[in-house]
Design a protein that fits this description.
- The protein is of the alpha+beta class and about 650 residues long.
- The chain is globular and about 85 Å long.
């Protein structure tokens, strides 16, 4: 390749990287995977080294991109540079040399700078382009764990990462009925949440802040140790990113220890950070145009497996979006067997040039989510369905912001009905036990369910239901009895059950609380009134209003309400509801009394408590059924004097 050809390739790569970074940082969306971005970035670095040329505006030289929003802008007192990175743990060993370091999680959220004066939080600014950020002080005040007042009254500046936990991410996505409207990952959701103009929306997103750098603390001496800085920050009320001291002798072992815990983490992380503990020595190393030399990032090497694409399953949703899912020969990845991966949309599917029988490589993004890395065959011989796989009606391709998606636009599509009714009868909605999607399909096909109210007239078809495959006299009676019990419900369940676009369980609770359980007041509320509800902005308010005004929706709601008995509204201020108020819990290991850790977290938070993914000085209890374990969390809890309790001890509190 000639020098001119190399430079042309560099320009093309730089343009693609800039476009991807602009989408990621400014628009909170992704047009390529992290893996593809890293590969292009490394290729550009190699070409720059080979040619000895760095083009103007190269992504390898720029720290970030200009922020675009209506939030106020402010320049950082000290530039916030990126970190150099490696995927080879042995590089960390040689990089550290004879020095002592601190190895911590590299959190995948949005970097924030906090400023305190006289013990009060006075300003919070996003990283922005590394030199100029956005002022988000009002939003930072409603983060779950940012202290508004601290015991230190000198001038203080620190940096940290704002993150949304996986459990909260899943909860928020579950509240969004439309598949195409769901957030792609916690990082995108966090970015949009932190930069809201309305702090009420930020407050509803449960954002956590983990400090990872102390910039300035007036009059303080930390004995030339970043570890002492971290300990001090914890002592005055900040959650600090989890870290362990390391040397060249044990850094590779500690990397493996972190890796083993990825699957159980409730927070998004895309690697590790190794920081020189010696402050003066680290500062003496200086910095490049883009990287400080006192720290380096470690990114997990993706475990790739080659396999063969056997099919693409087209999965319709209740909104009409038809999602492509790749089905391939099973392979072992990161300790589990995988055979399916979402392809997300038509644009990605076309970019991969997929065809049945193609040889593909697959990996787990951040060691968790199965993804297709590359198509080794690239046949492109995959037909996009011209008809819905369920109802057989024509499909349509929609394009928005350059992303193509496939849709079934038939309003009477059976899968839409089935999934709408499945949502209405789900546990957090009207909760009719025994009505699976398979059973609903039988009842809909038989013509016994046309609208929501029909769910409560199944006793009219008892004899016919008893004759259905898989049913009998006893199971039919059980189903009808479950429907009868579900007639007694409350306004929160009803609002959630209706599947109003954008309104999930948490929003349903807030609406019920605001209108004090008055269904008629809710139904008649204007957009302006709905905007007064905590966590409901103009977009959601308009969505609710549109839904309530549609004639067919009004008709079905009227018929449904004739069958239901709404319970009187009861305030949530009782003692049981607040039994864990003021307490913060960390959960680790297997649980026995709850279905999983998420259910235990929900139990704590529904009773006024808080949960966190890491142990800090603010933790009240660490819940671990193996109380004698030598795990890192148990050790840290003991160091901080925090009780380690079993589930039984927790329930007895």
């Amino acid at each position: 390749m000639s020098g001119a050809e190399q430079r042309e390739k560099m320009r093309a790569i730089a343009a693609r990287l800039k476009e991807a970074a602009r989408a990621y940082y400014q628009e909170s969306r992704e047009i390529m995977s992290n893996r593809e971005y890293d590969e292009l970035y490394d290729t550009l670095l190699t070409l720059e080294a080979e040619t000895g040329t760095v083009l103007s505006g190269s992504p390898t030289q720029q720290v970030g991109y200009e922020v675009l929003s209506e939030l106020p802008k402010e320049a950082h007192a000290q530039p916030m540079l990126s970190l150099d990175k490696t995927k080879d743990a042995s590089v960390l060993k040689s990089w550290l040399g004879t020095q002592r370091g601190l190895l911590s999680w590299k959190l995948d959220g949005l970097t924030i700078v906090l400023h305190y004066e006289a013990g009060e939080l006075v300003k919070a600014v996003t990283r922005g382009n590394g030199y100029i950020g956005e002022v988000i002080t009002n939003n930072a005040r409603v983060f779950r764990n940012v202290p508004l007042r601290i015991s230190f009254h000198g001038s203080l500046t620190l940096r940290g990462e704002a993150v949304i936990r996986y459990s909260d991410f899943r909860r928020i996505n579950e509240q969004i009925p439309e598949a195409e409207a769901k957030y792609k990952n916690p990082r995108n959701l966090c970015s949009g949440s932190v930069r809201q103009l309305d702090p009420r929306i930020t407050a509803a997103r449960d954002i956590y802040f983990d400090a990872f750098s102390l910039v300035f603390a007036e009059g303080m001496d930390f004995q030339n140790s970043h570890q002492e800085e971290f300990r001090w920050l914890e002592s005055i009320g900040f959650d600090v990113v989890e870290f362990v001291p390391v040397t060249a002798e044990n850094v590779e072992t500690q990397v493996l220890c972190f890796e083993e815990r990825i699957a159980e983490n409730d927070f998004p992380s895309d690697g590790l950070v190794l920081l020189m503990d010696d402050i003066a020595y680290g500062a003496s190393l200086g910095q490049t145009a883009k990287f400080p030399r006192n720290a380096i990032a470690f990114k997990w090497s993706d475990e790739l497996r080659e396999t063969r694409l056997r099919d693409v399953e087209w999965s319709p949703s209740r909104t009409g979006l038809i999602n492509p899912i790749a089905i391939f020969d099973p392979v072992e990845l990161e300790g589990t067997t995988v055979s399916r991966a979402s392809v997300h949309n038509l644009s990605i599917l076309k970019k991969l040039s997929l065809g049945i029988g193609d040889r593909i490589t697959v990996y787990k993004a951040n060691m968790i989510i199965p993804q297709i890395a590359e198509n080794l065959t690239g046949s492109g011989k995959l037909n996009i369905p011209a008809h819905c796989p369920v109802c057989g009606k024509p499909t349509a391709v929609h394009s928005e912001n350059g992303v193509e998606t496939l849709h079934c636009e038939n309003p009477d599509c059976a899968i839409k009905k089935i999934k709408r009714f499945a949502h209405m009868t789900s546990r957090d909605a009207l909760n009719i036990e025994g009505l699976s999607e398979q059973t609903l399909e039988k009842l809909i096909v038989a013509g016994w369910i046309h609208e929501y109210a029909d769910l409560f007239t199944l006793d009219r078809h008892r004899a016919e239901i008893e004759k259905l495959e898989g049913f009998g006299e006893r199971s039919a009676a059980k189903l009808i009895d479950a429907a009868r019990k579900a007639e007694n419900t409350d306004m929160t369940r009803l609002i959630y059950a209706l599947g109003i676009p954008g309104i999930g369980l948490q929003n349903a609770k807030l609406l019920t609380r605001y209108f004090q359980g008055d269904w008629n007041a809710f139904r008649a509320a204007s957009v302006e009134t709905l905007c007064e509800v905590e966590g409901v902005g103009e977009v959601l308010a308009s969505s609710v209003r549109r839904f309530l005004e549609q004639e067919e929706n009004r008709r079905q709601m009227d018929h449904l309400l004739e069958k239901l008995h709404l319970k009187a509204f009861v305030s949530e201020s009782g003692g049981e509801e607040r039994r864990y108020a003021g307490k913060s819990f960390v959960i680790t290991g297997a649980v026995h009394h709850f279905a999983n850790r998420e259910e235990l977290k929900a139990y704590i938070e529904s009773r006024g408590g808080k949960t966190s993914g890491s142990v800090s000085s603010k933790t009240s209890y660490l819940i671990n059924n193996d109380t004698a374990s030598g795990s890192a969390k148990n050790q840290k809890a003991r160091e901080l004097g925090i009780p380690v309790i079993s589930e039984e001890e927790f329930l007895a509190l």
